[in-house]
Design brief:
disordered N terminus, SH3 type barrels, alpha+beta, Alpha-Beta Plaits, five-stranded antiparallel beta sheet
């Protein structure tokens, strides 16, 4: 089930990138650049929704084209449970593709929960500096192609308990972690000697 959710999230993320690219092809964005907009921490989704609404209501669809929250799917494994979460790559920031003018700058700058543009002049009178095209390409490619990350609730040296399988309820110490294969190597005491066993992440929980 969690694998299906992860796949769904990845497909949605990839579809969003495709939609952004298709939309860019329909509209003349030759004079547009990408800008980094700072937000209150944890308000990225709110800013995206508010800004997209302001773009429509203030008739700025021909000046402000895309609002993107750079994210990465992550599978978190803790206490034998697997959960898929979406993690912000740059907490407190959103990316905006826009044609900079006094009007478009005003619309973005005065969106609720926006604190300003990154690389903005301290006196807030000079227009901010856009991202280099190679930088935005790298970020968008990372969103689309970077594999789902796996985060476990234990690390090398931690004591863990085996929760299932023939070694259930054995206590041991984590010797190594293989995130690519989803396996953990644990040293347990058996027949008076230390014995290494290899287990799935879901078969252990931190003590």
């Amino acid at each position: 089930m969690n694998e299906e959710i992860a796949l769904s999230n990845e497909n949605n993320q990839s579809a969003e990138i495709d939609d952004l690219q298709e939309e860019s092809e329909k509209i003349d964005t030759s004079n547009a650049d990408w800008y980094i907009v700072q937000t209150y921490s944890g308000h990225e989704k709110k800013v995206k929704a508010n800004l997209e609404q302001r773009i429509k209501s203030m008739d700025m669809t021909d000046r402000i084209f895309q609002v993107v929250i750079p994210t990465q799917n992550e599978i978190e494994i803790r206490d034998g449970q697997k959960k898929t979460i979406t993690k912000n790559l740059f907490p407190g920031y959103v990316l905006v593709h826009m044609e900079m003018s006094d009007d478009s700058w005003y619309v973005v700058r005065n969106t609720p929960a926006v604190t300003g543009f990154a690389a903005e002049n301290p006196d807030k009178k000079a227009q901010p500096t856009p991202l280099d095209p190679t930088e935005i390409d790298k970020i968008l490619n990372q969103m689309e192609h970077k594999p789902t990350q796996i985060k476990v609730g234990f690390e090398v040296g931690n004591a863990v308990r085996v929760t299932s399988g023939p070694f259930s309820d054995f206590i041991g110490n984590v010797e190594s972690i293989n995130t690519d294969k989803g396996l953990v190597r644990v040293m347990i005491s058996m027949f008076g000697r230390e014995t290494p066993i290899e287990l799935d992440f879901l078969q252990v929980e931190k003590q």
